């Protein structure tokens, strides 16, 4: 009889020195090794043998994971508390937060508890804080908040919110809070029945529109649930002139004779001409280091072009526009088109294949609102996502902001001006930008960081050679570790007081922050700052 090597490896992990310390810590709570072992094994599987997450806060996660099933027992096994002052228990209070845009195909989801496997797979890396206890069932079409109830309903959709509970107090803290060693056996039930709070978790905010799910985690409950409609790609709002047709793609600008993967050819095909006769991508799906380095150095090279009559300034004051402030000359990636003969797995079709990395929207703790992190390590040159939103003319954007109320919160718009230097006399319907405030994808949550962000935006041609419209793709500038927040430089001019959206007070934390207002002022250091892109 042979032994499964995976089982042997698991056995070793369950009996090494770190596991023994965990058993000893739980023994002080009166919990035997036999009871702890299956819980610890599941946590090691969920956290990919990352002991730091389990040992953090004096084994807080392990304690929570052990006591959680106790609270799932049927009601008749629990001690019944008398109902005071009323013969009937109070009715559940419900609050419905209406979304910006709803769809009949995405109905409000019911509330339910996690199964053991789901609970283990959704445990966060940080303990939740606070005393309020409620559960929220959510889909990307809306949020439903509910006060505590003893009844649990099953959810029929994959796009659901999971309930994660933690206990009050910080176990192991030295400031008078409980420590494991100070707890007796009788403390087990008290700990299990202690007040708890819910951590909001949405399994997939994309409504199933992406190749992979994008989860959302709120461990603080200090921010309203984001209200927007998720779209995986850009959509025209109204007047934008985006002409996508095969007739506009010249035969010499595509590789109709190719088949399979263009990157496997001994000689680069016509689609590589835009990037100097070499493809921007390597065979492993990453940007080539030289191309990435050139893109990173573009702002330092100060290659700017200036319009004789800038569409942005014209949208602000058509009768007397201000001089152009300049537009950065950018490198483009030209991917293979629909007219090309290669297949969709071609190495030169990275952006158009869509999202492939495991991303999570989370609530930051630096006053920046929502942010995005990767749940996996990302090597340098990885495609993360594109910035998707409504395609507006600059005039439409300006009018939209002027007509908005003071309570509206806008994401910072992206101007598609990478090739305005080659255009003469751009019409308003050709001077375009992207606005993800009401309709957008996961990129709308990525926070700004001055100069040393870990992402870079690069223009990508996918459907049309007309460069007044293109895709804006975000790639990693360096190796990015799992759970590190993703950031990119919006290219904000903090001194431009005429921009339709006023530049936020930057709290990026970079040593190279361009927001001079934040430096050397006491109020800037003590005041809780909020990004315009806090969503």
Automatic annotation (TrEMBL):
Pfam families: SET (PF00856), WIYLD (PF10440). One of its GO terms (molecular function) is histone methyltransferase activity. It is found in: Chromosome; Nucleus. GO terms for cellular component: chromosome; nucleus. Residues 357-491 form the SET domain. Its main location: nucleus. Coiled coil: none annotated. PANTHER family: HISTONE-LYSINE N-METHYLTRANSFERASE SUVR4, INACTIVE HISTONE-LYSINE N-METHYLTRANSFERASE SUVR1-RELATED. This is Histone-lysine N-methyltransferase SUVR4. It comes from Vicia faba.
């Amino acid at each position: 009889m042979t032994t499964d090597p995976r089982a042997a490896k698991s056995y070793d992990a369950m009996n090494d020195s770190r596991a023994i310390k965990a058993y000893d810590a739980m023994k002080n709570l009166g919990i035997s090794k036999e009871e702890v072992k299956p819980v610890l094994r599941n946590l090691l599987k969920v956290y990919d043998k990352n002991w730091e997450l389990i040992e953090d806060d004096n084994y807080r996660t392990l304690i929570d994971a052990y006591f959680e099933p106790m609270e799932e027992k049927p009601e008749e096994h629990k001690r019944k508390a008398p109902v005071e002052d009323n013969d009937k228990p109070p009715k559940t209070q419900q609050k419905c937060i209406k979304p910006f845009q709803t769809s009949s195909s995405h109905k409000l989801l019911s509330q339910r508890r996690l199964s053991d496997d789901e609970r283990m797979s959704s445990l966060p890396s940080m303990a939740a804080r606070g005393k309020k206890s409620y559960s929220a069932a959510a889909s990307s079409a809306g949020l439903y908040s509910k006060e505590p109830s003893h009844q649990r309903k099953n959810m029929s959709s994959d796009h659901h919110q999971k309930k994660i509970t933690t206990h009050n107090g910080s176990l192991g803290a030295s400031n008078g809070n409980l420590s494991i060693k100070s707890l007796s056996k009788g403390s087990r039930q008290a700990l299990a029945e202690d007040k708890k709070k819910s951590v909001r978790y949405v399994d997939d905010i994309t409504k199933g529109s992406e190749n992979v799910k994008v989860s959302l985690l709120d461990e603080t409950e200090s921010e309203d649930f984001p209200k927007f409609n998720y779209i995986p790609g850009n959509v025209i709002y109204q007047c934008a002139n985006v002409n996508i047709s095969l007739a506009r793609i010249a035969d010499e600008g595509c590789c109709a004779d190719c088949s399979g993967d263009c990157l496997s050819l001994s000689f680069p095909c016509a689609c590589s001409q835009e990037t100097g006769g070499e493809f921007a991508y390597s065979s492993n799906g990453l940007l080539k280091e030289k191309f990435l380095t050139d893109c990173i150095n573009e702002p330092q090279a100060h290659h700017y072009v200036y319009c004789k009559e800038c569409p942005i300034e014209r949208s602000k004051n058509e009768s007397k526009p201000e001089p152009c402030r300049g537009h950065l000359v950018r490198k483009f990636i030209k991917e293979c088109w629909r007219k090309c003969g290669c297949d969709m797995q071609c190495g030169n079709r990275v952006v158009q294949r869509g999202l492939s990395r495991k991303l999570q929207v989370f609530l930051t703790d630096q006053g920046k609102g929502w942010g995005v992190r990767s749940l996996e390590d990302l090597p340098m040159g990885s495609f993360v996502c594109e910035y998707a939103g409504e395609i507006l003319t600059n005039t439409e954007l300006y009018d939209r902001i002027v007509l908005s109320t003071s309570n509206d919160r806008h994401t910072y718009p992206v101007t598609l001006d990478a090739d305005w230097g080659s255009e003469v006399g751009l019409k308003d319907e050709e001077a375009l930008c992207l606005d993800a405030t009401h309709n957008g994808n996961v990129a709308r949550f990525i926070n700004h960081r001055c100069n040393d962000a870990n992402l870079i935006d690069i223009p990508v041609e996918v459907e049309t050679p007309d460069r007044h419209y293109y895709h804006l793709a975000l790639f990693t500038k360096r190796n990015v570790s799992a759970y590190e927040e993703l950031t990119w430089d919006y290219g904000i001019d903090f001194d431009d007081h005429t921009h339709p959206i006023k530049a936020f007070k930057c709290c990026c934390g970079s040593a190279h922050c361009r927001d001079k207002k934040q430096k050397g002022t006491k109020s800037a250091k003590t005041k809780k700052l909020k990004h315009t892109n806090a969503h």
